[in-house]
Design a protein that fits this description.
Layout lengths: L2 E2 L3 E8 L2 E11 L5 E13 L5 E11 L5 E12 L3
Antiparallel strand pairs: 1-3, 2-3, 3-4, 4-5, 5-6
Amino acid sequence: VALRSPDHGVWNFKGAGNYRAVSEAFLFNPAGAWVSTQRITQAIDLAPNSNTFTSNASVEFFDTLGNTTSTGCATAVATRME
């Protein structure tokens, strides 16, 4: 079981309700040693006038030398809470 740091990253406005976000988090083993890094790259689309968004993301994991160890993908749908 790995322990995970908070994400840190950047996002950019791409136009017409579209954004790109990239964030990274560090993963540690139970003894506290850094074992890998997780990078999430998202394409975020805000629906006009609806308080919802969708996101398609790629997820990459790297060892401590920066070598890719695994990849995946994810999707998300969200609605603003009132």
